[in-house]
Design goal:
By secondary structure, the chain is α/β, with parallel strands linked by helices. It has one domain (6-238): Spore Coat Polysaccharide Biosynthesis Protein SpsA, Chain A. The protein has helices at residues 19-26, 42-53, 68-81, 101-110, 128-145, 162-168, 177-187, 214-238; strands spanning 6-12, 32-38, 58-62, 86-89, 115-122, 158-161, 192-199. Strands 3-2-1-4-6-5-7 form a 7-stranded mixed β-sheet, sandwiched between helices. α5 packs parallel to α8. The two termini are 22 Å apart. The structure holds guanosine-5'-triphosphate (GTP) and magnesium ion. Guanosine-5'-triphosphate is lined by residues 11-13, 15, 38, 65, 67-68, 71, 91-93, 95, 130, 156, 175, 210-212.
Length: 253
Amino acid sequence: MSAFRVCAIVPTYDNPLTIRAVVEQLVPLVEQVLVIDDGSAEPGRAAVDALAAEGLACVIHREQNGGKGAAVKTGLVVADEAGFSHALQVDADLQHDLADAPKLLEAARNQPTALVLGDPRYDDSAPSARRVGRRITTFWIRMETGAGVIGDAMCGFRVYPVRAALRAAPRGDAMDFDPEIAVRMVWSGAPVINIPTNVRYLAADEGGVSHFHAFRDNVWISLMHSRLMFRKVMAFLFGAIIPPLRLGPRGQS
Ligand SMILES: Nc1nc2c(ncn2[C@@H]2O[C@H](COP(=O)(O)OP(=O)(O)OP(=O)(O)O)[C@@H](O)[C@H]2O)c(=O)[nH]1
Ligand SMILES: [Mg+2]
């Protein structure tokens, strides 16, 4: 593999109160911070433009909101074009404990082919509906990858080897992206390293904002698991005669 060069990818959709603190903490840790603005309204857009003007981040605007997954995919393509071998993905809502970022990066440096996943530890601020949703996803992930491989597939704090992430070619553009890319990378043979990390939910007056739509996003996530399970069952039944895994970018498998 080429030299270890790491950037951060921060997808953001309307995080005007928290994006600066996230970027400022990332600047000393990575070579470049890529902020992917996913069609934010004016306050969020102004906040990221200020970061670009100060040279703290490279900001890419998606003019239309496309979903978290679409934003991260944009970031992965830009990271690859810029020659980064690895990308640290971080949400823009200050939920992640960036004091743990050096641990994730160290794990990636030691095992460059690995997918390094934050394994969240929630405090009392976590809404119970989100805990339940994550337990359901964890059940499906175990069916798809086996137990003990992926600690938590939903956590948006992780390090990708960029090329392997692009080759995994997940279809999901919304909140289904995080679990789907993790499963597909495991199927492609990437080792997984799970690193415990605290996650907190900020109050609204601190800038805490979630765009997670309990109904819409859980429907997308369920459809994604159905697709993956169908593919897994087909691979199990007919693996010898159909290619069980997507091996290249979409359209090239
Ligand atoms: N929900 C959502 N988030 C987006 C979108 N585009 C980019 N993002 C960013 O993706 C990250 C995660 O979004 P959140 O809404 O916090 O989703 P989450 O962390 O899974 O959900 P919570 O656990 O409720 O916080 C944030 O940095 C968002 O700004 C989008 O279209 N929808
Ligand atoms: Mg969040």
